[in-house]
Structure formats: C-alpha cells, structure tokens
Amino acid sequence: MRYRISGKQIDVGDALQTHVQGELGETVEKYSQRPTDATVIFSRDAHEFICETTVHLSTGLTAAAKGQAHEIYAAFEECREKMDKQLRRYKRRLKDHHRERSEPVEFADAPMYVLAANGGMADSEPDSLQPMIIAEMETKIPSLSVGEAVMQMELSGAPLLVFRNEKNGGVNVVHRREDGNVGWIDPSAGT
C-alpha cells in the first residue's frame, strides 16, 4: 500500500510516519486484502491535533476517518479506531462487493462548481439570479448499486453521494436525513 503522510504547517517526523504506516496498514489489511493507497494529513486547531485519513480500496471504494486529541499520536489513534470501526462494520459487504465485481468501480468525469455565498445577508435581494462561480473543478462519479452507494457514503463519512445507478444508468443521490435514515433520490423512477 502506498502512503502519503503529511502535515499542514506541522513537521511529521520519521517516527510518526513509521508508526502510522505500521498501525494503519495492519488495521486496513485486516478487512481489505488489497488496499491501494492511503492519505494521512495532520493539522493543528488551536491546542488540538487533527488527523484526517482517507484509504482507497482496490474495489474503487473509499474509507475516511477523522480524529482529534491534545497529542498527535492520540489524534492518529482516535482516527485509526474510527477507521477500524467503519471497516469492521462493513467487512462482510466489502468482501461481498469484491466477490460480485469482476472489474473495479467505474468512474465518470463531471464538472463541479463552488458557488459564492450571498455575503451572509439573507434578507437582502440578490442583484442577479445567476450565482457567482468562484471555483471550477473535475470530480469523479462512481457507477454503483444503491447498496454500494450507501456503503460508500457511510465509509467516507459524507452527508451525501452522487452516483450513476448500475441498474438503470441514471444519476442518483443518496443522503443522510435529519432523522438518521438514508434518503435515495432516483429521478428515473418518476417517469
């Protein structure tokens, strides 16, 4: 597995890098035999250290976790424990997902835009109904089943996931609802 371990305005020493590679590698390989790469980023927020980890699996799925503590090693351990819990919870489905697929998950490119906020003035009328684009990027949209999309959303910790439904080829969305349930939006089902 390839590791990219870095710090945002923090010097990440060799000892910490070796610790991260050993512990994270052991955790991930327990549940997934073929992880491809991991990105670990350490940062600092006031008096706490933050560790954000993203692991890409060979099946195309991604797992993400975040931990914070007063010490940098403790922040990593909290993050690793969260990753372990996520992967343990989805171990059976990860193995089933890999068995059912002969090919890794396919991704399609799509444009992604960041729109400017209205300046925090909710009562004022905007000058124009056209939003101001402040960033333009490319993003990847995976082709998944609905179950796989829910699993991917949970593993990555995202509030929603846009995906191409393998069953009908349409663009769908799964999202975490305020009541804790998962919502699924399938525009093709309405026609």
Kindly list the characteristics that best describe this protein.
four-stranded mixed sheet, alpha+beta, 4 helices, SHC Adaptor Protein, Double Stranded RNA Binding Domain
Describe the model.
With 191 residues, the chain is an alpha+beta fold. The protein has two domains: 2-98, Double Stranded RNA Binding Domain; 105-190, SHC Adaptor Protein, CATH 3.30.505.50. Helix content is 30%, strand content 38%. It has four helices and nine strands, in the order E-H-E-E-E-H-H-E-E-H-E-E-E. The chain has helices at 14-31, 72-89, 91-100, 146-156, and strands at residues 2-7, 35-45, 48-57, 62-69, 107-115, 133-144, 160-165, 171-176, 182-185. The strands form two sheets. A five-stranded mixed β-sheet has the order 5-6-7-8-9. A four-stranded mixed β-sheet has the order 1-2-3-4. Helix 4 (146-156) links the parallel strand 6 (133-144) and strand 7 (160-165). Helix 1 (14-31) packs parallel to helix 2. InterPro entries: HPF/YfiA_ribosome-assoc, HPF_long/plastid, RHF-like, RHF/RaiA, Ribosom_S30AE_C, Ribosom_S30AE_C_sf.
